[in-house]
Design a protein that fits this description.
516 residues, alpha+beta, 16-stranded antiparallel beta barrel, three-stranded antiparallel β-sheet, Porin
Length: 516
């Protein structure tokens, strides 16, 4: 009997253990299923949120890219865009705000409170090289600063390249090493009505002595009505494509010959004012009118006193110059320009421009100079471009100059000089191929010529000349690059010359955008 009870109790215990084990197993399976379902639901919610965020970010990126292109063109730096306050920019800003609000609403509606994004940190983010260096800020006013340096090294068959070959002020000037452009740039918002820009350039001469110049310092309006914009101060004239550009944005080491022939080593820049109007056309069209003081070496073809001869008398094209003081509006230099941009396809942009510069020169009381120019630019970039590559661009400019030289009966070498028109003309054409991220190959061809003058048949700024320049540029990043360029020069005064130049650039801070 005891054995039977013992067996019964044992059986009951075993059955209870089995039931408990089954219950635990069932509960474990239920928990596992619940965990799996919760995990899948969580993953589904996260996936949905990511899809929403990615979709909205893509739309935001598209709007921001459009706004960036408009701002870049407005600042005259990559397709030119309308100035601030235009209808297109207002629409883009409104669209950006709407998408931002939609993104916030989507996130607030679909994300559980437990997974809500914590409030942003109030600590200041660390500065990165992609940002300007803000040195002062007060309310809406601020100032950024950047520093850009170009160094050249190379060799030429000409013992003194600066004498006849490299006539630009920022070109390599000697065999070996040159440093012709170290630019301190500042920009910022003055108030709600103006932005300010300044460029101070330091350079080393052949003896490594430092020179300094205030290259640009000007205000630009930001709130004029009727698509108008005003610029005032010291600035490069809006003539053609390259004259307004700083050397660090050039595609080649040196300035085109025709530009140094028309505007001298330093380009056409002066104190004055410029008004521009964005024409209300279906395509981008902007009209400029610059009114410049036009006096000094930076106004080479106009009221330029020239260089002293052996007796200390300042001369231009052999004629003695005099201080042609301002007598009225006729003694200013006027620089009109019109430029239009067309989207040929989704991948191609075409830009055409025409410019002029008209004013007095200092060889006589009524002598005047005229410069005419046309330019064109074309760029192709596919929709799948990565970091802006690949791309192909073509650029060309053609200029014609008429310098009305007055008579100088007092000239002794080669003798009394008659009044004459000195005419020069020429062009350059360049092609750039961004064949791989950070790599750009370029080729530039140039031709210039001019009629014979009574003063000097061997004037280096006149006569027939050609140059061919292939180059290759490697961009370490947007803040540094190295460029290798070969120049083949041939001319009636210089014979045949060969030069090889290596250029290195580094930029600290973020320089303001430049024209497209």
């Amino acid at each position: 009997m005891k054995i039977s009870k013992l067996i019964g109790w044992s059986s009951a215990l075993c059955l209870s253990a089995t039931l408990l084990q089954a219950q635990d197993t069932n509960e474990l399976e239920v928990l596992q299923r619940q965990l799996k379902a919760a995990t899948e639901n969580f993953d589904r919610v996260i996936k949905e949120q990511r899809e929403i965020i990615n979709s909205l970010n893509q739309r935001l990126d598209a709007v921001q890219a459009a706004m960036t292109n408009q701002q870049r063109i407005q600042n005259q730096t990559a397709t030119v865009s309308p100035p601030a306050g235009s209808t297109n920019e207002a629409v883009a800003a409104a669209e950006k705000e709407r998408l931002t609000q939609q993104l916030a609403a989507e996130l607030g509606t679909n994300i559980a409170p437990s997974s809500a994004t914590p409030p942003p940190s109030t600590s200041k983010a660390a500065w990165s090289p992609a940002q300007p260096i803000t040195v002062a800020q007060a309310g809406s006013a601020y100032m950024n600063i950047s520093f850009d340096t170009l160094m050249d090294a190379g060799w030429s068959t000409a013992s003194d390249p600066s004498a006849q070959l490299q006539l630009g002020d920022h070109d390599p000037i000697k065999r070996g090493f040159s440093l012709r452009n170290a630019e301190l740039a500042v920009d910022g918002a003055v108030d709600p009505y103006f932005k300010g820009f300044g460029n101070i350039v330091l350079k080393l001469d052949k003896n490594n002595e430092t020179g300094i110049e205030l290259e640009e310092a000007f205000l630009v309006s930001t709130s004029l009505p009727a698509n108008l914009q005003l610029k005032a101060g010291q600035f490069f004239a809006a003539f053609g494509r390259q004259n307004p550009q700083h050397p660090h944005s050039w595609a080649f080491v040196d300035d085109p010959i025709i530009l140094t022939r028309a505007f001298g080593p330093e380009g056409l820049r002066s104190i004055g004012t410029q008004i521009s109007w964005l024409v209300p056309t279906p395509f981008y069209t902007e009209v400029f009118l610059g009114i410049l003081d036009g006096q000094g070496g930076t106004s080479f073809s106009f009221r330029n006193p020239g260089d002293p001869d052996s007796l200390g008398i300042n001369r231009v094209h052999g004629r003695a110059t005099f201080d042609r003081t301002m007598a009225g509006p006729q003694d200013l230099v006027y620089v009109p320009r019109v430029v239009s941009s067309f989207e040929v396809t989704d991948h191609q942009t075409l830009v055409f421009g025409a410019s002029g510069a008209f004013g007095p020169n200092e060889t006589g009381p009524h002598s005047r100079s005229e410069v005419y120019g046309v330019d064109a630019y074309w760029k192709w970039k596919p929709s799948n471009a990565s970091e802006g590559f690949p791309f192909v661009s073509l650029q060309t400019e053609a200029l014609y100059t008429r310098f009305g030289a007055a008579a100088d009966p007092t000239a002794t070498v080669p003798g009394p000089l008659p009044a004459e028109n000195l005419r020069d003309w020429g062009f350059y054409s360049q092609a750039l191929w961004g064949f791989h991220p950070h790599w750009v190959a370029g080729l530039r061809g140039e031709y210039v010529n001019g009629n014979a003058g009574a003063f000097d048949a061997n004037d280096i700024f006149r006569g027939q000349r050609t140059r061919v320049s292939p180059d290759l540029t490697w961009y370490f990043s947007e803040f540094s690059k190295v460029r290798l360029q070969y120049n083949y020069d041939q001319g009636e005064f210089i014979g045949t010359q060969h030069s090889v130049w290596l250029q290195l650039e580094f930029l600290l801070g973020a320089h303001g955008a430049h024209k497209f």
